[in-house]
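hey m, so remember when u said the tokens were messed up on ur end? i reran from scratch. heres the input so u can diff it against urs
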Amino acid sequence: MGKMMESLAPEFHMTIAERYDSQNPLTDESPLNVDVAIDFTEPKLAATHVQICLQKGVAIVVGTTGWYDQFDAICRQVDRHQGALFYATNFSIGVNLFFKMNEIMARLMKGNGYRATLTEIHHTAKKDAPSGTAISLAEGILKAGEYKQWKLVDDPNQASANQLPVLAHRQDPVPGTHSIVWSSSIDTLHMEHIAHSREGFARGALQAAQWIFGKTGVFNMQDMLNFTDSQHS
């Protein structure tokens, strides 16, 4: 992702001024003479990187997932520092349109006798399972009220009637495929998003970095794409 964003940055009139990675992570002592930081590292580093950026007055865009157990505490720090955080489980514009379609579909399917199954496939270097994108899709389905919770399983039959089964597969070189199948005894409906490369993720992250500059608060793709009416400064 770092290399992809660096190659695309000139299109967004951006300059990559500093580089850190999992082997050379950002620390309190690191110089950070930038307008916006973009994090695609590891779950164990992301929250720390956010805190450092807030302390240094730098807005940060986070594409790393798997750190959301610290989300509420981080949001309080954003407020305390009057900083800016943009987070997303997936920066692809197409995926975020897919999120919205998924929520609408779940509402339409409720009570009509269909059983949903969510499946995600990623490359073997993907650290967390299910993916953050799959979790976002699962939570979108849960909003409709047909299921009480989602459950990571190897077989859909391992989930109870009020649980949404989620399957996670790892195979190279898949950038990311997410599908929701709604099945009944009569027919089956299939929704799917297939990423052909990581370029969509990189472009979305750079667009988010442009969008968040000069703002304060906590934001996500729904804010940038005007899917919500929430107000920020």
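this time it looks ok to me. The helical segments are 2-8, 43-55, 71-81, 93-109, 132-142, 199-212, 221-224. if urs says something different then somethings off w ur setup not the seq
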